[in-house]
Amino acid sequence: MIMDCLRLAGYKVVSFDKISSTQSYAHDMIAQGIASDHMAIVAAAQYAGRGRYRRKWVSHHGNLYVSFIFNSPERDPRLSYAVAVAVAETIVSYGVNPQIKWPNDILVNNAKISGVLIEYVGRFVIIGIGINVHTNPTVPEYKTTRLDEYANVEVTDVMSRLVKNLDKFIKADFDIVRKRWMALAAGLNKLVKYRGEMVELIGVNDNGALVVRRGPEYLLIHGDEILM
After folding, report:
1. Is the predicted pLDDT of residue 115 greater than 90, yes or no?
2. What's this model's pTM, rounded to 2 decimal places?
């Protein structure tokens, strides 16, 4: 077990040195009927970490890997913005300037430092977050970076700050979240690639859809990826 000294007000923390995936463990807890609201599953390393579309998330020791379980009787597309802003603000708190890349990546100097995976299971939502703190993987698809390249930081402190920001922005009015998300958004008011076409990234509407413009036409995106 790790992080035994970590105490999070209002959360039950389940921590491991190494497991297959915090996200998979959260799924198993829900399936077994032992999950509850405000749980955090934390691992120092994962051997089968995953992101969206079951993409592999390389998970060496030295970073933060956590999946939060919250009650969520209904799906809310606005939740992903609150989580992205919470992660970004955690990085900002160390004097670092991140950007949010739709839909779930946090970048620093155009290199990925964090990813988010949100999955709804029954009456719960699982929010998986990985933040590169002391190590960053080498992957062919994109550049990566880590937080200790920019600040003196420890994983337990990152976790504490992340929880405070999650509590703040999940409860915040969506207009506040949306304004902050747009201030941090990578590619805003620029051309990005969506389904093989170049479109202009406009912003986010009240319901949490990403708004892009293709010529005179405005499109609403809910889950697809865009390329910078």
Report:
1. yes
2. 0.91
